[in-house]
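Sample A.
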Amino acid sequence: MDNGSRYVGLDVHRDTISVAVRDSRGKLMLERVIPTSAAAVLELVELLRGRLHVAFEEGTSAQWLAGLLQPRVAQVLVCDPRKNDRRGSKNDRIDARELADLLRCGRLSPVFHQDCGLTALQELARTYLVLTKDQTRVMNRIKAIYRSWAISCSGQSCYSPKQRQAFLSQLPHAAVRDRAQIYYQQMDSLMTLRQQVRTQLLREGRKQTALRLLCQIPYIGPLRAILLIVFIQSPHRFRTKRQLWAYCGLGIETHDSGEYRFRQGSLERKRQPTVRGLNRNHHHLLKYVLKSVAARCCSGSGPVREFAQTLLDQGMRSEMVRLTVARKIAAIVLVLWKKGVGFDARYLKSQAA
């Protein structure tokens, strides 16, 4: 019997949204194409009756659409398109139909979309990271010019304002010097903008209560702590540390097949090696932050360094030590943030962390 629930699949594109609506028995009730606009989406919600469950794939418009629909429908599920198993023909109408059916059957993998009050901090962090990448690209272009003329430019000296003229004078042609000079001007502009955004980012980050807690962890300064807050958003989205490890790309994946066999009438498990590795579907920037902290901890001093040295003394390979330290730091971040407690070296020995 129809319980009044409606399952809406949205295939979202820049200009249009393909809509498919199914009832609780899977019967297709409505199909249409609407413009990608707030007015059209709200008109669709008003048209449909019953308890609405809406699903669409993660994409450019996902955050906007989720924020628009969450106060107005019973459920909004933004799904991971990489985990949707589809075969056969594909078009917008078919995609919307399949999303509605997968939502009805509970076979979609959700992507976290909640308003955690971090919009200003997230936008500043995105701007800072983009400016950092742009500055790095320009600096690489400057070095590429010198290397193309066999001019030694190792280190950071070629970027120094005091030594630029000495490097520019080694370039044989005026056109090449002009090109390098333009790159220097671009680099200076990006450095100024990046410093301004960094100041704003740190000022906004100090408003977060978690900042003080995370900065107690060795080699996590204010900037890294802010990036952890931005990338994780809420510690309560992870029930266990292993869920956070998988999100960070530090989770272990195993691949096995034909695990069991019968021997003399008894079922037993085969003793064969299992293919293992780190999960590939993860947040790459968050993994970079945790790995950089782990590398500093392993080469520095303090309780984390002592923990890493203990693992080395036990015969663990250095790359596995760094992985273990990164996983331990991620677990400690989760504990401190969830419980609101300070850092304690005993967390390094606790299995709970």
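Sample B, a different protein:
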Amino acid sequence: MEASAIIGAVEGVTKKWAKHRKREERDTRAVANRSRAMTSVKTPIKYYAMKVTEEAYQEASDNGRLPAYVRQIMYAARRLIQNYTDDDLGDKYYIQTILQEYFQTKNPSWKNNVVTDARGHFAEPHTKVSIGVGTLEVRKYLKHGTSGDNFDFEASTLFPTHGVVNRMAAILFVEKEGFLPLFEAVNLADRYDLGILSTKGQTVVAARKLVDELCGRHGIPLLLLKDFDKAGFSMLGTFKRSSQRYRYRNTIKVIDLGIRLADVDEWNIDSESFHSAQDTWTMKRNLRKNGATEQEIAFIADDLQRVELNALPSQRLVEFIEAKLAKHRIKKVVPDTVILDEAYRRALRNEFIRHRFEELKDQADEFANDTKVPALKRKVATILKDDPTLLWDKAIAQLAAEVDYDND
């Protein structure tokens, strides 16, 4: 036998052993499966993946209490499946094939609690205003924002604002849209006065424009929630400096809320290996440029390991984020005394009207019942002919506005 053949045979045997030993160091439960993993008849990984899916969902969703992103379920399944096989569970294969087949064949009651990706969005806290992160949507939002100038005694008591002013403590950028239902379920935005921005994949120019105006002009920080990998650090660099695609007009305070190497150990987060077409030197240069430490660079570029936010179950992810918010002292918004005084007087005016409303309502009902109703059909038809964009009830409102209320 040639030397190369002997080497190949030895590596073929030892590679599987070394792989399983490494898993044993991370999870003592795998020790009991060593003999079976090395000697048992091969069973398709699909069988085991289907077997652990229910448990994976329950783990990711805190036993169904919280929404779970598909990749959170995938990470839980990937770890659970190690109890049965040494084969690697591919993320796309699990999400696009196995999980979909599981839904079709099992039709679990929790299927609608599983979240998948969507496109980018920005949402204000409290107002429920949400926009798509596209050029036109961002441009319109920055121009008009939201305002409470039109008083409605039955609805909003919000102080008139425009965008972040007196409303947001920070903008939280999330590189995955699948977490948004989770944040809504735990009221993250409202509890911390956070505007939440998300895009699918790398940041788009519209997102940078929005951050430039909201954070840069108004002096609130940008909180970046990202994976611990090269793409995450690249995203961090994208918000910290200008590029050919977008040049910032303002200085932005960027706070990294994402996973770092110290968090991997502290929070006991699973890492995963990856393959890169980029050479090690180029990857290290990029990581160093975007703020990674030398230890982090070695972890990613030399060991070819990465850590995703999805590896944290929903409840743990919320705890992780809140710990970071506390560390960086992100607090509720309380404006200065001038704004507070103005807001108080506005609230007094609103409450004065609210308390007088019932009396006015009775007078209004009496007036409406005693007023003769004109022939409306022709009048409404005429108004709609002049302005076809109107609804018929808008035409009725116009006619009501022509009544002389002062000479009743």
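Observation for Sample B: The radius of gyration is 29 Å.
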